[in-house]
Protein backbone atom coordinates (compact mmCIF):
# COMPACT_ATOMS: atom_id res chain seq x y z
CA UNK A 1 0.00 0.00 0.00
CA UNK A 2 1.35 3.46 -0.84
CA UNK A 3 0.06 6.38 1.22
CA UNK A 4 0.65 9.79 -0.35
CA UNK A 5 -0.47 13.32 0.24
CA UNK A 6 0.03 15.88 -2.54
CA UNK A 7 0.42 19.54 -1.54
CA UNK A 8 -2.98 21.15 -1.07
CA UNK A 9 -4.93 17.96 -1.77
CA UNK A 10 -6.67 15.52 0.56
CA UNK A 11 -4.88 12.34 1.56
CA UNK A 12 -4.84 9.70 -1.17
CA UNK A 13 -4.26 6.02 -0.62
CA UNK A 14 -2.76 4.09 -3.49
CA UNK A 15 -2.29 0.36 -3.36
CA UNK A 16 0.39 -1.37 -5.35
CA UNK A 17 1.72 -4.85 -4.96
CA UNK A 18 4.65 -5.56 -7.22
CA UNK A 19 6.09 -9.04 -7.44
CA UNK A 20 6.35 -10.17 -3.83
CA UNK A 21 6.99 -6.77 -2.23
CA UNK A 22 4.46 -4.50 -0.58
CA UNK A 23 5.40 -0.82 -0.55
CA UNK A 24 3.94 1.81 1.78
CA UNK A 25 4.79 5.50 2.07
CA UNK A 26 3.44 9.02 2.53
CA UNK A 27 4.33 12.71 2.39
CA UNK A 28 3.80 16.10 4.02
CA UNK A 29 0.70 18.20 3.51
CA UNK A 30 1.03 21.85 2.62
CA UNK A 31 -1.63 24.50 2.36
CA UNK A 32 -1.99 27.74 0.43
CA UNK A 33 1.33 29.46 -0.20
CA UNK A 34 3.25 26.27 0.51
CA UNK A 35 2.74 26.56 4.30
CA UNK A 36 2.87 23.23 6.09
CA UNK A 37 -0.01 22.09 8.22
CA UNK A 38 1.05 20.32 11.38
CA UNK A 39 4.27 18.41 11.26
CA UNK A 40 5.44 17.08 7.93
CA UNK A 41 5.76 13.36 7.84
CA UNK A 42 7.23 10.82 5.58
CA UNK A 43 7.63 7.14 5.98
CA UNK A 44 8.40 4.28 3.73
CA UNK A 45 8.33 0.63 4.50
CA UNK A 46 9.30 -2.20 2.21
CA UNK A 47 9.12 -5.77 3.34
CA UNK A 48 9.38 -9.12 1.72
CA UNK A 49 6.26 -11.23 1.92
CA UNK A 50 7.31 -14.42 3.66
CA UNK A 51 7.08 -17.72 1.84
CA UNK A 52 4.57 -18.93 4.40
CA UNK A 53 2.22 -16.08 3.43
CA UNK A 54 2.21 -17.04 -0.25
CA UNK A 55 2.24 -20.81 0.19
CA UNK A 56 -0.53 -22.39 -1.80
CA UNK A 57 -0.76 -19.43 -4.14
CA UNK A 58 0.19 -20.41 -7.66
CA UNK A 59 -0.39 -19.28 -11.20
CA UNK A 60 -1.84 -21.75 -13.71
CA UNK A 61 0.43 -22.95 -16.50
CA UNK A 62 -2.06 -21.56 -19.02
CA UNK A 63 -1.37 -18.05 -17.69
CA UNK A 64 1.99 -18.16 -19.49
CA UNK A 65 1.49 -16.38 -22.78
CA UNK A 66 1.38 -18.80 -25.75
CA UNK A 67 0.55 -21.84 -23.55
CA UNK A 68 -3.07 -22.89 -23.33
CA UNK A 69 -5.27 -25.45 -21.62
CA UNK A 70 -3.83 -28.42 -23.55
CA UNK A 71 -0.34 -27.60 -22.27
CA UNK A 72 -1.72 -27.12 -18.77
CA UNK A 73 -3.28 -30.61 -18.91
CA UNK A 74 -0.05 -32.19 -20.21
CA UNK A 75 1.91 -30.46 -17.46
CA UNK A 76 -0.57 -31.63 -14.81
CA UNK A 77 -0.17 -35.24 -16.01
CA UNK A 78 3.59 -34.74 -15.63
CA UNK A 79 3.18 -33.43 -12.08
CA UNK A 80 3.76 -29.77 -12.97
CA UNK A 81 0.91 -27.76 -11.46
CA UNK A 82 1.95 -24.12 -11.70
CA UNK A 83 3.64 -21.63 -13.99
CA UNK A 84 6.21 -21.02 -11.27
CA UNK A 85 7.10 -24.71 -11.12
CA UNK A 86 7.34 -24.88 -14.91
CA UNK A 87 9.71 -21.90 -15.00
CA UNK A 88 11.77 -23.42 -12.18
CA UNK A 89 12.35 -26.81 -13.82
CA UNK A 90 12.76 -25.41 -17.32
CA UNK A 91 11.57 -26.44 -20.76
CA UNK A 92 13.84 -29.46 -21.28
CA UNK A 93 13.07 -31.21 -17.99
CA UNK A 94 9.36 -30.37 -18.27
CA UNK A 95 9.12 -31.71 -21.82
CA UNK A 96 10.94 -34.91 -20.80
CA UNK A 97 8.46 -35.41 -17.95
CA UNK A 98 5.56 -34.84 -20.35
CA UNK A 99 6.91 -37.51 -22.71
CA UNK A 100 7.42 -39.93 -19.81
CA UNK A 101 3.78 -39.48 -18.78
CA UNK A 102 2.21 -40.22 -22.14
CA UNK A 103 2.44 -37.07 -24.26
CA UNK A 104 3.38 -37.73 -27.86
CA UNK A 105 6.62 -36.11 -29.02
CA UNK A 106 6.19 -33.22 -31.42
CA UNK A 107 8.97 -30.79 -32.30
CA UNK A 108 6.69 -27.77 -32.65
CA UNK A 109 5.17 -28.50 -29.25
CA UNK A 110 8.65 -28.56 -27.74
CA UNK A 111 9.82 -25.30 -29.22
CA UNK A 112 6.49 -23.61 -28.39
CA UNK A 113 7.29 -24.43 -24.75
CA UNK A 114 10.87 -23.16 -25.01
CA UNK A 115 9.80 -19.92 -26.65
CA UNK A 116 6.85 -19.37 -24.27
CA UNK A 117 9.12 -19.65 -21.23
CA UNK A 118 11.25 -16.94 -22.83
CA UNK A 119 8.15 -14.80 -23.41
CA UNK A 120 8.48 -15.13 -27.18
CA UNK A 121 5.93 -16.30 -29.78
CA UNK A 122 6.49 -19.73 -31.32
CA UNK A 123 7.02 -18.32 -34.83
CA UNK A 124 9.99 -16.30 -33.57
CA UNK A 125 12.10 -19.48 -33.64
CA UNK A 126 14.15 -19.53 -36.85
CA UNK A 127 17.48 -20.46 -38.39
CA UNK A 128 20.33 -21.64 -36.19
CA UNK A 129 18.24 -21.36 -33.03
CA UNK A 130 15.64 -23.71 -34.50
CA UNK A 131 18.33 -26.17 -35.61
CA UNK A 132 19.84 -26.20 -32.11
CA UNK A 133 16.42 -26.76 -30.56
CA UNK A 134 15.83 -29.66 -32.97
CA UNK A 135 19.00 -31.36 -31.72
CA UNK A 136 17.93 -30.86 -28.11
CA UNK A 137 14.42 -32.15 -28.89
CA UNK A 138 15.83 -35.28 -30.56
CA UNK A 139 18.03 -35.97 -27.52
CA UNK A 140 15.11 -35.50 -25.08
CA UNK A 141 12.89 -37.72 -27.23
CA UNK A 142 15.54 -40.46 -27.45
CA UNK A 143 15.96 -40.69 -23.68
CA UNK A 144 12.37 -39.96 -22.54
CA UNK A 145 9.97 -41.54 -25.03
CA UNK A 146 9.46 -45.25 -25.56
CA UNK A 147 7.39 -45.62 -28.72
CA UNK A 148 6.89 -49.36 -28.14
CA UNK A 149 5.21 -48.89 -24.81
CA UNK A 150 1.80 -47.30 -24.53
CA UNK A 151 0.71 -45.20 -21.58
CA UNK A 152 -1.49 -48.07 -20.39
CA UNK A 153 1.44 -50.53 -20.53
CA UNK A 154 3.55 -48.10 -18.54
CA UNK A 155 0.90 -47.76 -15.82
CA UNK A 156 0.25 -51.51 -15.65
CA UNK A 157 3.99 -52.09 -15.44
CA UNK A 158 4.37 -49.59 -12.59
CA UNK A 159 1.68 -51.22 -10.46
CA UNK A 160 2.92 -54.74 -11.23
CA UNK A 161 -0.03 -56.02 -13.27
CA UNK A 162 2.10 -56.95 -16.28
CA UNK A 163 5.56 -58.42 -16.39
CA UNK A 164 8.39 -55.91 -16.63
CA UNK A 165 9.85 -55.60 -20.08
CA UNK A 166 13.62 -55.63 -20.42
CA UNK A 167 15.24 -52.26 -21.10
TrEMBL record:
InterPro entries: TfoX_C
Organism domain of life: Bacteria
Domain TfoX C-terminal: 61-135
Name of the molecule in the record: TfoX C-terminal domain-containing protein
Protein source organism: Tritonibacter horizontis
Amino acid sequence: MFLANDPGKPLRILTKIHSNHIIAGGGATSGPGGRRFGTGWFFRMVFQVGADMVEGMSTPVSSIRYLGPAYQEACARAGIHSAEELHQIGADAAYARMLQTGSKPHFIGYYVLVMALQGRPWNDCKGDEKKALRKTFDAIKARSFDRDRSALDRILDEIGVIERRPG
